[in-house]
């Protein structure tokens, strides 16, 4: 049980679950209706294994390079708490990277390219001399580029190519990409609010350090509200091959829930922000889980 707990915390499970939902969603939207979804299960599994391996490499590397910082900000993580050593973590991320690259190579050339690009960006996020995470612009750029742009476009095209040998990017994918770009900026902003003290002491110039927790929290709520309302309006404009009534009504309901959740959180109380941040990631999962329903309803 203790070993499972260590592995669970080291993997940063919300990011792993996010990769699971995004991969599954993009696979379904690519396979439907050109091919039988169930007949492409090997392709899906190779892609999923590669995505999770790459994810584990990035979050593990981040922990290796931030042990002292995490002793202040995230003391429950196994490296910061001393439950595992740096050498063990290096073995884990090395194996994860190898599994990711090999699986991506077997899955297809676009997935292979995606993993290499994301791996480079993930390394630059944590490792000097770039270390994007030291400044809020670099951190937001790398998180948004990966979660918002590269995954949604390149992974979708990867499935399209391997299933139907086409690189068509349908118009109904546009709203999802736009939404995830803004939602990913929210991730980059909100995640740093509870870590202001430790980040300031270690010279990490997050937006929360520079502008304060209230400004960042309100900014994230406003930005993500804009993204929800854009999808509501987009539903009235119309999307070929997509149920726009579902698009508008679903995102309006989720936006209301999002606002209600934000009202319960005090940006000056770390526990409130952490609870809301977990809820925020649930909404990330929900988006990928329900967005494809617009194709079949």
Low-confidence stretches: none
Biggest sheet statistics: none
How many strands appear in the DSSP assignment? Answer: 0
Q: What is the CATH superfamily classification of the largest domain? A: UbiA prenyltransferase
Q: Please identify the top-level CATH class of the largest domain.
A: Mainly Alpha
Number of domains: 2
Q: Terminal Cα separation, in Å?
A: 42 Å
CATH architecture type of the largest domain: Orthogonal Bundle
Residue-averaged pLDDT: 94
Which overall shape is indicated by the principal axes computed on the Cα atoms?
Answer: globular
Number of helices: 15
- Determine the structural class based on helices, strands and strand pairing: mainly alpha
Query: Based on the structure, what is the oligomeric state of the protein chains?
Result: single chain
Question: Helix amount, in percent?
Answer: over 70%
Nearest-angstrom radius of gyration?
19 Å
Question: What is the CATH topology assignment of the largest domain?
Answer: Tetracycline Repressor, domain 2
What percent strand? under 5%
């Amino acid at each position: 049980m203790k070993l499972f707990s260590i592995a669970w915390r080291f993997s940063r499970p919300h990011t792993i679950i996010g990769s699971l939902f995004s991969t599954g969603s993009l696979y379904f939207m690519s396979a439907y209706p050109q091919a039988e979804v169930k007949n492409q299960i090997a392709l899906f599994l190779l892609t999923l294994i590669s995505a999770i391996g790459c994810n584990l490499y990035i979050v593990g590397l981040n922990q290796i390079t931030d042990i002292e910082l995490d002793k202040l900000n995230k003391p429950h993580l196994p490296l910061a708490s001393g439950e595992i050593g740096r050498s063990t973590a290096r073995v884990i991320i090395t194996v994860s990277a190898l599994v990711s690259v090999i699986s991506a190579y077997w899955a297809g050339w676009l997935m292979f390219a995606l993993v290499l690009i994301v791996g480079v960006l993930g390394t630059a996020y944590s490792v000097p001399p770039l270390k994007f995470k030291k400044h809020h612009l670099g951190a937001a750029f790398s998180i948004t580029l990966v979660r918002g742009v590269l995954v949604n476009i390149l992974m979708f095209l990867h499935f399209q190519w391997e299933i139907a040998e086409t690189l068509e990017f349908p118009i109904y994918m546009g709203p999802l990409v736009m939404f995830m770009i803004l939602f990913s900026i929210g991730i980059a902003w909100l995640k740093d609010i509870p870590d202001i003290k430790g980040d300031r002491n270690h010279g990490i110039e997050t937006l929360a350090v520079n502008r304060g927790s209230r400004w960042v929290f309100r900014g994230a709520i406003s930005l993500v509200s804009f993204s929800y309302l854009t999808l509501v309006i987009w539903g009235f404009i119309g999307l070929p091959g997509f149920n726009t009534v579902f698009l508008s009504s679903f995102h309006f309901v989720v936006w209301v829930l999002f606002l209600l959740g934000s009202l319960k959180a005090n940006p000056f109380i770390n526990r409130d922000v952490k609870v809301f941040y977990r809820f925020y990631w649930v909404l990330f999962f929900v988006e990928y889980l329900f967005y494809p329903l617009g194709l079949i309803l």
